[in-house]
Amino acid sequence: MSADKRVVITGLGATTPVGGTAPQTWDALLAGKSGAKPLPQEWLDRYELPVTFAASLDQDPSEVLAKVEVRRMDPFSQYAMIAAREAWADAGTPDIEPERLLAAIGTGIGGVHTLLAQYDVLKEKGPRRIYPLTVPMLMPNAASGVVSLEFKARAGAHTAVSACASGAESMGMAANMIREGRADMAIAGGTEAAIHPLPIGGFAAAHALSKRNDDPQGASRPWAVDRDGFLLGEGAGVMVLESYEHAKARGAKIYAEFASVGMTADAYHITAGDPEGETQARAMNEAIESAGLTPSDIVHVNAHATSTPVGDIAEITSIKRAFGDAIDGVALTGTKSMTGHLLGAAGAIEAIFLAQTLHERVIPRTINVSEVDPEIADMDLVIDEHRKLPDGDLAAMSNAFGFGGHNIAVVLKSV
Amino acid sequence: MAQSDQEILEGLAEIVNEETGVDAADVQLDKSFTEDLDIDSLSMMTIVVNAEEKFGVRIPDDDVKNLSTVGDAVKYIKDAQA
Asked: Which domain does A31 fall in, by range?
């Protein structure tokens, strides 16, 4: 791998609980909009779910996809396709040899809607009625498969599956593969469509979800003293990554440089993070060093910050450990306060937000933090209003951590 | 619940359109599923599953390979309903 080979971001696409495109989502973040909505009444009538809301998509996929695409793709692949098409168009619909283009779309769970719906078919109508596309729809690599097919990406089609780190890991792997010379461009990101009574029931049983049923839009409140869990979201984020030489040669618009990724594993507990923060901190330090930087060069972190009582504190412990004295210069924000937690798409949309932050020179604020947890009151949190960033060279980081002990830190630089 | 050829053709055309995106008007009796309508074997199975449900018939896998044109399928379904 050529460490000095630069990789840049030349296209952005997203479909999220607050907007149907990447620019719409960004505008919603600057407007402080929450994506929380009530669950379908049918589910509430049928099940006594302990949580009655989630952050479902702002735009129905059937508004932008052909009917047959909606029928033949699980929602998680539909979302990836929508975001990938937007990102590719945003990159200028480049001409590229199929052998020099790769796809990398991660997911936490995969086609859970298809799996559960077809299980119902099996029980109610028997095996003869099972939809013949069931397996190619539910497999977690379906999204990278359909994206590879759509754009003729033949350098490889990859799928990181690392729970809530999947999207960030896919982008980091794709950037590294461009550095290795395996491709000149990549369509990379994460996607998730898990708003269904079963995952909701499962996350609620694990006490991971906020139960603020009387105030869904206030449910996601990272770092607030009264936070009580995350807001389940869905959607996809996809970026076009490209070697700097390739981007310059075709005169592409560049949002930011994808400088590096740090990846570690906890090997501590299947869901809880290392309380000392050593492994998360090592992912951050590895990313900073790989980018040729020191902690004092990082001005901003888009934190994982899911709004769980334990997770938010653990991440702050890790950030303090990674940055040491340089922590004073780091402004933190938690955009999950607005989007909710998109699981396998979370790290992907947050890396996109980071690119937009560096490009637009403004950090979106964290909403709903009426009272900061006293344990983290010493941190520089962007909570009251957006924070403008100065001109000049800047570097910033995004964290994504997943059940299973996966720690991913991404560093972007302004261009 | 026997249906006319025309009713079966229209119902089949609707399924083909939903499953593959092929225009329902292109689904005519003389059209070959593979040659004319570009329908692959997996998509053909999705059509069969839906046709069984819609027309209340059973189309065993061994018979599916003999249904090369839309007309073959319409005739098969009509005979099975009789």
From this structure: 7-249
| A254 belongs to a structural domain | no
**CA angle, A151 then A156 then A162, to 5°:** 105
What CATH number is associated with residue A381?
A: 3.40.47.10
Report the alpha-carbon distance of residue A234 to residue A57 in Å, rounded.
Answer: 6
- Across the interface, whether the CB atoms of B49 and A128 are under 8 A apart is answered yes
Residues A314 and A176 in one domain: no
Which candidate from A68, A131, A136 shows the least CB-CB separation from B49?
A131
Q: Which of the residues A300, A341, A359, A406 is marked catalytic?
A: A341
Topology of the domain covering B5-81: 1.10.1200
* pLDDT tens string A335-383: 999 999 999 999 999 999 999 999 999 999 999 999 999 999 999 999 9
Chain B residues whose beta carbon lies within 8 Å of the beta carbon of residue A72: 19
Q: Which residues of B are catalytic?
A: 40
The residue-averaged pLDDT of B68-77 equals 97
In chain B, which residue's Cα lies nearest the Cα of A132? B46
Q: How confident is the prediction for chain A on average, in pLDDT?
A: 97
The answer to whether B60 faces chain A, any CB pair under 8 Å, is no
Interface contact B46-A67, CB threshold 8 A: no
**DSSP alpha helix (H) spans, B4-65:** 5-20, 41-55, 61-64
Would residue A2 count as lying in a domain? no
Residues of B in contact with A71 (CB under 8 A): 18-19
Domain boundaries, chain B: 5-81
Q: What value of ipTM does the predicted structure carry?
A: 0.89
- Residue B6: CA atoms inside 13 Å, Cβ hemisphere, count? 0
**Is A24 strand, coil or helix?**
helix
